[in-house]
Amino acid sequence: MSTGYELVVVANRLPVDLHVEEDGTTSWSRSPGGLVTALEPVMQASEGAWVGWAGKPDVEAEPFDAGDMHLVPVTLSADEVHDYYEGFSNDTLWPLCHDVISPPEFHRAWWDAYRRVNRRFAEAAAAQAAQGATVWVQDYQLQLVPALLRELRPDLRIGYFHHIPFPPLEIFAQLPWRRQVVEGLLGADLIGFQRPGDASNFIRVVRRLTDLTTRGPSITVPGPAGERQVRAGAFPISIDSSRFDAMARSESVQARAREIRRDLGDPQVLLLGVDRLDYTKGIRHRIKAYGELLEEERLTVPDTALVQVASPSRENVEAYQQLREEVEILVGRINGEHGQIGSAAIYYMHHSYPPEEMAALYLAADVMLVTALRDGMNLVAKEFVAACTDDRGVLVLSEFAGAADELSGALLINPHDIDGMKDAIERAVRMEPREMRRRMRKLRRRVMEDDVTKWSQRFLSTLTAVPRAEGR
Ligand code: G6P
């Protein structure tokens, strides 16, 4: 049996980046994602282990300690990266969970790889967990892990959190392996979602695709140790708000924010978009709206500039390659029509940046554009708010992002309604300082209060409170 960690996190990625040098030697560096920050204090307090993939194919590495965390790499072959990660996770489940914006592909070989890899993650987690430990499985890449893990280790308390939207039954039902996925999730004691609507979509799917009894958010699941109650609920994720607040207050970030504005030619209005280059983010819709505002001279260059950071993502998946082409053509066209020597209409960056640079960009911006067509939460919106320490800045936010449930001080938009989005952008640009401050203070109260530590505490304490089956 296990050597014994009291809390085991299982996620597709490890919270570190692997570097392979030219001579073949490898090293790790910390990759400070939101989830790591959230879970670090809990992990430190409770002897935590993290099971995940190193992000590159065929890396065989022994478990190792990084700070207070024990990291357990799971190896994926190049074929598995293709079929499980790029294929089933990001070309089947991802579009299925995001309103089929891009058509999901259904391939049996991808499903076989997904099952095989999920079993490998479940076995690795089972080998790390102490008797009666808590295992917290993260996200859509690992939906079969809860049930596989329960089979291997019925003594464990198992939680699962779905970071992306859970689709309506009518869309989920397209998945040829829909029942197996639901059964995989039902291995958990607690299934967390971003929005109440995601949780109710899931309950409806359970009612229609299984014979199980549901009562409000509870599902009764029979098993060898007696009946279990599985709970589904909304636990909206957040960010390390005080970290972004502190960065934005630091002299170096403030100086960098001034420098960014100066380098852009001190525009009166700086618009900002920050996204993974993903078709769910509404980047094309946003740029189209901006282009029309320039066309109609409701905004002009060089008084206005748009900085669009589009960080590279899932570059081997065709839908992402196609999106990149489309966005880059559009950016080129608008810059060609409206840019001048020394002042572009759009500054487009296909890079990712460290958090300090992001904080400086947020601080420098006047208007933040979050125009997702569908998004589980959208943490960029919350980061922007946490970095606006001077109460200056307007958030234009899609109602299709989970963050819209909480961030009522934003200007909410429907990104499919280009005219409505244009009006909202113009309103944001011309907003009176008093209204801007009132809205930003409201946003900041919410984001500073509900941070990611609260999120993990709420999830884990709810998980601990779920009654256990008789006989365990
Ligand atoms: C979303 C998903 C995460 C995923 C991240 C980056 O936020 O919910 O599970 O890790 O995108 O995508 P990648 O494919 O690079 O891990």
Structural description of this entry:
- With 472 residues, the protein is an alpha/beta fold.
- It has two domains: 5-237 and 454-465, Glycogen Phosphorylase B (Rossmann fold); 241-450, Rossmann fold.
- 43% of the residues lie in helices and 21% in strands.
- The chain has helices at 34-45, 78-97, 108-128, 145-152, 169-172, 178-185, 196-209, 241-249, 251-263, 283-295, 318-338, 355-364, 379-387, 418-429, 433-449, 452-465, and strands spanning 5-13, 16-20, 26-30, 48-53, 64-66, 69-74, 129-138, 157-161, 190-193, 213-215, 218-221, 228-234, 269-276, 304-311, 346-349, 367-370, 394-398, 411-413.
- Strand 11 (218-221) and strand 12 form a beta hairpin.
- The radius of gyration is 23 Å and the shape is globular.
- The model has no long low-confidence stretch (mean pLDDT 95).
- The structure holds 6-O-phosphono-alpha-D-glucopyranose (G6P).
- Residues 13, 139, 163-164, 313-314 line the site of 6-O-phosphono-alpha-D-glucopyranose (G6P).
Features:
Rossmann fold; 2 domains; binds 6-O-phosphono-alpha-D-glucopyranose; 21% strand; 16 helices; ten-stranded mixed beta sheet; 18 strands
What can be said about this structure in brief?
This protein is of the alpha/beta class and 472 residues long. It has 16 helices and 18 strands. The chain has a 10-stranded mixed sheet with strand order 5-6-4-1-7-8-9-12-11-10, with helices on both faces. A 6-stranded parallel sheet has the order 15-14-13-16-17-18, with helices on both faces.
| Domains, number | 2
Give the count of helical stretches: 16
| N→C terminal distance | 17 Å
- Specify the structural class: alpha/beta
Shape: globular
Extended strand count: 18
Quickly give the CATH architecture of the largest domain: 3-Layer(aba) Sandwich
- The CATH H-level homologous superfamily of the largest domain: Glycogen Phosphorylase B
Describe the biggest sheet? Answer: 10 strands, mixed
Bound molecules: 6-O-phosphono-alpha-D-glucopyranose
The name CATH uses for the topology of the largest domain is Rossmann fold
Helix content: 40-55%
Rounded Rg: 23 Å
